[in-house]
Design brief:
alpha+beta; 7 strands; elongated; 4-stranded antiparallel beta sheet; 1 helix
């Protein structure tokens, strides 16, 4: 009988030790579907008031060469005066907007080629 009790005790001890061991990590399962969107969170605090903006100054069109555009035979080049700086589209190399600094320029526009001088504050003379 003692042997039976001792055997049962040892089996119980072994079962307890095996049952308390760390389980083995299985393979990662596939990702599940995305769940429904949750409710919107509470409204945040109102931020501080930003600084006052500068007075607006609209862009104006400045004609670079004399004449009138008459499609498709004459195209008079123009530029934009933005914040007292002259900008125009340069058509070479795919075309891009560029700042036109004061100086002497030549236009080869179709039917309205000319030379012009840009001075400060978007002023143009021919």
């Amino acid at each position: 009988m003692r042997l039976l009790i001792l055997t049962m005790f040892l089996l119980g001890l072994i079962a307890g030790i095996v049952g308390c061991s760390e389980p083995e990590q299985g393979p990662q399962g596939v990702a599940g579907q995305t769940g429904a969107t949750g409710p919107q969170g509470p409204r945040g605090d109102t931020g501080a008031t930003g600084p006052a903006g500068a007075d607006g100054q609209p862009a104006r069109v400045v004609q670079l060469c004399p004449g009138v555009t008459v499609y498709p035979s004459a195209f008079v080049e123009v530029a934009l005066c933005i914040n007292n700086q002259l900008y125009a589209v340069y058509s070479a190399n795919g075309g891009f907007l560029t700042h036109i600094l004061p100086g002497l320029y030549n236009s080869n526009a179709i039917g309205s080629a000319c030379s012009f001088t840009v001075v400060d504050s978007c002023l143009v003379t021919n």
